[in-house]
Amino acid sequence: MIKTLTNLFKQDKEKFVVPKGVQDVIPVVAIFDDGIFKVGKDKYSKTFKFTDINYAVASREDKEAMFLEYSELLNSLDSGATTKITINNRRLNRLDFEKTILIPTKGDDLDVYREEYNKMLLEKATGANSIVQDKYVTISINKKNVEDARTYFARVGADLIAHFGRLGSKCVELETDERLRIIHDFYRVGEESSYHFDIKETRKKGHSFKDYVCPDTMEFEKDYFLKIKEFIDECAKYPKLLQVAMGIEGLICGRSIHASAVYLFNDDFLEHNARMKAPNGVYTTQFNMADSDYQSGLKMDFLTVENLDKIRHCMDMLVEAGYIKWQGSLRSTYDKYLHPDVLDYDTEEMWDWIGDNRCTDLFQFDTQVGLQSAKKIKHH
Question: Any idea where the domains of the chain sit in the sequence?
């Protein structure tokens, strides 16, 4: 038994990957048309919905029979699978309730009775703060592929439905759309009626199913997460705000010059790239460095002549003052004394000079913002 549990825990343990977006928070890798979800490297799950039974008002003999049948149900579950029972308390969606439960009017003399009956149903449904309780059984299993998982769930599902039937409970498999609906309603409280998902249309457009069910944004704490209410409220107030925000996400909103990257072109650069001006008037590529490299641009990294001059003068002055010794060449002298790998970053005097603004040049920190950042580094 201990060995079985140990193997189960190993199977459930997945390598944690830091989510880069709200879509990545949803623990589903892929979905299939028959309601099977891939939730890990080789792990698949299937969810079944079941109704409640009148155990409390049953006779003693019926209770014993229910108990024994429930024990058989639990024993029928595979020891190599993970089974979870979920009780979902959700607020009643009035629109869905009216579509599925209420009797539609027909424009005849009996409408008055239909309306009265519908009124009674609504009063009953909204009596307990409009809270509805749904019950689910989710079975997860590690299989090599979805075909093996599909065969397993077909066998286990038939047994599960039969056992619940003998208990007096109705058990049904949830389709893909129904499972996604549960996730959508959990993450998007108050937007239940806006749910719409067509798996065929989604595949045709190349969209991710997570885009239809994930929240707009989330805020993570130590042991729980929140949806950022202020942003959600603003999106609700201005309907096109989210559309605009998603439209400008990832766009380049500033222009700058790389410290030492220069692209060389044999012919007209417009054949491979595009040109624009930085704020100081210097021409730069319109494509960023990664895209320019992807376009097979020939990039050479140079330090500017000014910085090369400063390094050379610094070395000459240090040799002349006797602080360092000439090593026979510029490269050898630089490598021995000034190379970043040999500099002593723990020297308190150097950090004091930076803080007192006594350094003539800090290279890439030699800007107003960079200098302030360097001063705020309290090394000692």
Answer: 2-92+130-213, 216-251, 261-301, 309-376
